[in-house]
Write a structure and sequence with these properties.
This protein has helices spanning 6-68, 71-119, 123-157, 163-172. The chain is mainly alpha-helical.
Length: 178
């Protein structure tokens, strides 16, 4: 089993944090893109309604003039008005279907975003875990430092190391002795 150093653990945690940050940014960008598409759809729908309203107003004017003309022209205008009313009704049905699809898409997006939020770790959780890991790493390094100091003293007593060499080794550690 590979022994991970505190530096490697911190690096792995940093990479994990970066991947999570990128995932969140990507989902935020996708949500923004969908919002833009929805806005464009709403604007197109509004333009269609305005166009239909203008056509309806134009037809009303024509109808008024047609009532003043002969019965045949009036009947033709009635037919035209009915055709336009049918077209407007069909358009309204189509728009309502589009809105229903958009509502479903938005509901799906909300659900997906909720799932993403639920599975993401919070900053406080990550900070706590990083703090714990840092504390554990410091404790392990202190234990190792004590062992090295003890070994250095033993080697100095056995005259394997000189007192100067032993002193240098003790002062080298991550927690040098005074």
């Amino acid at each position: 089993m590979e022994k991970r150093t505190p530096k490697k653990r911190n690096s792995e945690l940093s990479e994990l944090r970066q991947e999570m940050r990128q995932g969140f940014l990507q989902s935020r960008q996708e949500t923004d893109d969908l919002r833009k598409e929805m806005r464009q759809g709403f604007l197109k729908t509004e333009e269609g309604f305005l166009h239909a309203r203008q056509e309806t107003d134009d037809l009303r004017k024509e109808m008024h003039q047609g009532f003043l003309k002969s019965g045949k022209e009036t009947e033709e205008l009635r037919t035209s008005v009915q055709d336009i009313l049918d077209a407007v009704g069909s358009f309204a049905t189509h728009v309502e279907e589009n809105f229903a699809e958009i509502r479903q898409d938005v509901a799906g997006l909300k659900s997906e975003i909720g799932g993403i939020k639920a599975s993401m770790v919070t900053k406080s959780y990550l900070d706590e875990k990083l703090g714990n890991n840092y504390g554990n790493a410091v404790a392990m390094v202190r234990k190792e430092d004590v062992k090295v100091d003890s070994l250095t003293q033993i080697l100095a007593k056995k005259k394997v190391l000189s007192k100067i060499e032993a002193k240098e080794v003790v002062h080298m550690g991550p927690f040098p002795k005074a």
